[in-house]
Amino acid sequence: MKRSLQFLLPALAVGLVALVSSPKAQGASSASDEKTLIQMEHDWGNALIKRDMAVIGGMEASDYTFTSPDGSVSSKADSDAEIKSGAAAIESFKIDDLKVQIFGDTAVVHGLETEKSTYKGKNTSGQYRFTDVFVKRDGTWKAIATHASRVEKH
């Protein structure tokens, strides 16, 4: 019994050290990732205004999907084509009320977006609540999904 305690106690000590130090390291990483994701959201909005496909393409994963306020789902290729062609045009874009939640290599960002925009010539300006889902691939955050809901004025 004494012999097994000799091996068990050091193993427990190593486990406790790992348990105690892990949240600190993860917390520092999470804070850095949170800042990165917030900056990405702002950069993404600016890129949409400018129709900067290089920036947009760098933020979205190849399997990105967009769920619009009317419930339709678009692939990255479809969304990018509408932005590139001008069918979806954003004149101004402001983000507020951002909340970032990080779960390892997955992050969920909730926010409120106020935009002046048109879609296929129709005025779509207004406020939208959005949820963006990001995954960290090869050390880089990529958007994999967006869902937007129009905020109705009462």
Q: Give the rounded overall mean pLDDT.
A: 85
SSE sequence, one letter per element:
HHEEHEEEEE
Which regions contain 5 or more consecutive residues with pLDDT less than 50?
1-26
* Helix/strand class: alpha+beta
Instruction: Look up the CATH topology.
Output: Nuclear Transport Factor 2, Chain: A
Beta-strand percentage range: 35-45%
Number of helices: 3
Report the end-to-end length measured between terminal Cα atoms: 72 Å
Annotation, overall tally of beta strands: 7
Number of domains: 1
Tell me, what is the CATH class? Alpha Beta
Describe what you observe in this structure.
With 154 residues, the protein is an alpha+beta fold. The chain has a single domain (2-150), classed as Nuclear Transport Factor 2, Chain: A (Roll), CATH 3.10.450. The protein is 43% helix and 43% strand. It is built from 3 helices and 7 strands. The chain has helices at residues 2-50, 53-59, 76-85, and strands spanning 60-67, 73-75, 88-103, 106-119, 122-123, 126-137, 140-150. Strands 1, 2, 3, 4, 5, 6 and 7 form a 7-stranded mixed beta sheet that branches. Strand 6 (126-137) and strand 7 (140-150) form a beta hairpin. Helix 1 (2-50) packs antiparallel against helix 2 (53-59). The longest helix is centred in the N-terminal third of the chain and has 49 residues, at 2-50. The radius of gyration is 21 Å and the shape is globular. It starts with a helix and ends with a strand.
